[in-house]
């Protein structure tokens, strides 16, 4: 797992690593520039296009200059636009300025005429994580020039203007791609910055993970390689009971489809027995749509101790008696998954939080979260509030969206890397409820259930999205869940 450090820690990390490896700081910059240049050459193979690189006065600009040198023999025309005379810039900027070959043209920002270039590749190296105040003056002009230009725009590390860990105040470069180094900077994961970051690419510059671990601030980025070892293994003699009995509660008239999706997803994630509680008028729909599931009648709801996991809320409606909900929560003696109307009921009747079993997993999307903790200013604020909430109630908050975050009662916060925009379609969240309930029922610790569940759900969405693109529907995610286990070679 990759630690996400704050912007101010990047310099500390750099220094510590450089001294432990006995290398020069420009050599680390060279690795970053090489990674960027390799990606550029592979992805933009029209070498006749002009490449314009905007270089600010710090190491982000230094990266830009190193990149200019590295690509100067591949692209026919490479130009550096600079803002300060080299003597006033960072030491590694100066080193790379001296190493610029003659074939790279250099132009002072005020003399640059953007109208004279046609469809260039524009590289933004004005500021990276070292930005420490809102941008104004010449650099703001630079950002505006980039934003006015027409071409492919690629930010080095961070789109200039965006603070590494906070929300943008003012203007910033609107990039199509951001190639970031070592770990994703926190602010690249904020929904408010989507139009600035574009597609994020993560490039390793060779600082070992354990090095970052020593500086951990409790924020981690979860990738494919982290997941298989988190799974429980089952043996050849495993039986239905080992894979868990799961109960799902929800699905009022007109919304029973949410229970159909959740039940199918629970089964596809490997649960042994799935029971569903829906209003009696909806039972038949459920039985016909999911013959593998059993419909729980009210008498079965009296003894909740026989279920290994319970998922509550999709399509439930807001008319549910809060005392009935409280009774369910009180009588379950283990963590539950709460989604959709389960969350809306908690927001409507906050006293219900007192009954939520510790270790439970709550899965709000941004709106649902805001109903629970009103007054959210931006994503930074949301993440802090989610963290506080998780600690206070000793629960897991799965804040859904791109880079879904998982805030844990122990103060750690994880960011998921799988998933895609095509999953923003009705019922995707119901599928997640099923996946999470299934892992809880299979005996996973709630943290493992949350991390594995969110990752597999996103990965299933990626597999389905590769075939269905924007035609993806929630059922496609369900059908792709088994492939996620096959690809990870899970037993
Ligand atoms: N391990 C890694 O990740 C690696 C990171 N690397 C790269 O280094 C980048 C970080 O470089 P960095 O620290 O030099 O900061 P950077 O963003 O270039 O700007 C700082 C300069 O701008 C100034 N300044 C700040 N705000 C300002 C404002 N609003 N308006 C005007 N000026 C402002 C500030 O000076 P000040 O005025 O505050 O004294 C300073 O001169 C990082 O993003 C990545 O690209 C790789 O090369 C190697 C490995
Ligand atoms: N742009 C995106 N990138 C990655 N995942 C996404 C994106 N948009 C939505 N998702 C995922 O799809 C699911 C949508 O859930 P939710 O908003 O509850 O949908 P619904 O209420 O329609 O079931 C969440 O798991 C979320 O993380
Ligand atoms: K930048």
UniProtKB/TrEMBL annotation:
SUPFAM superfamilies the UniProt entry points to: Ribokinase-like, YjeF N-terminal domain-like
Binding residues for (6S)-NADPHX: 59-63, 128-134, 157, 315, 365, 430
Cofactor(s) recorded in Swiss-Prot or TrEMBL: Mg(2+); K(+)
Top-rank taxon: Bacteria
Domain YjeF C-terminal: 223-488
UniProt-listed Pfam families: Carb_kinase, YjeF_N
Record's keyword terms, sorted: ATP-binding, Isomerase, Lyase, Metal-binding, Multifunctional enzyme, NAD, NADP, Nucleotide-binding, Potassium
The EC number(s) this enzyme carries: 4.2.1.136, 5.1.99.6
Keyword Transferase in annotation: no
Residues that, per the record, bind AMP: 400-404, 429
Note on how the cofactor is bound: Binds 1 potassium ion per subunit.
Reaction(s) the record says it catalyses: (6S)-NADHX + ADP = AMP + phosphate + NADH + H(+); (6R)-NADPHX = (6S)-NADPHX; (6S)-NADPHX + ADP = AMP + phosphate + NADPH + H(+); (6R)-NADHX = (6S)-NADHX
General function of this protein: Bifunctional enzyme that catalyzes the epimerization of the S- and R-forms of NAD(P)HX and the dehydration of the S-form of NAD(P)HX at the expense of ADP, which is converted to AMP. This allows the repair of both epimers of NAD(P)HX, a damaged form of NAD(P)H that is a result of enzymatic or heat-dependent hydration. Catalyzes the dehydration of the S-form of NAD(P)HX at the expense of ADP, which is converted to AMP. Together with NAD(P)HX epimerase, which catalyzes the epimerization of the S- and R-forms, the enzyme allows the repair of both epimers of NAD(P)HX, a damaged form of NAD(P)H that is a result of enzymatic or heat-dependent hydration.
NCBIfam families assigned: yjeF_cterm, yjeF_nterm
Family statement drawn from the similarity comment of this UniProt entry: In the N-terminal section; belongs to the NnrE/AIBP family. Belongs to the NnrD/CARKD family.
The protein's name: Bifunctional NAD(P)H-hydrate repair enzyme
Organism of derivation: Mariniradius sediminis
Gene name per UniProt: nnrE
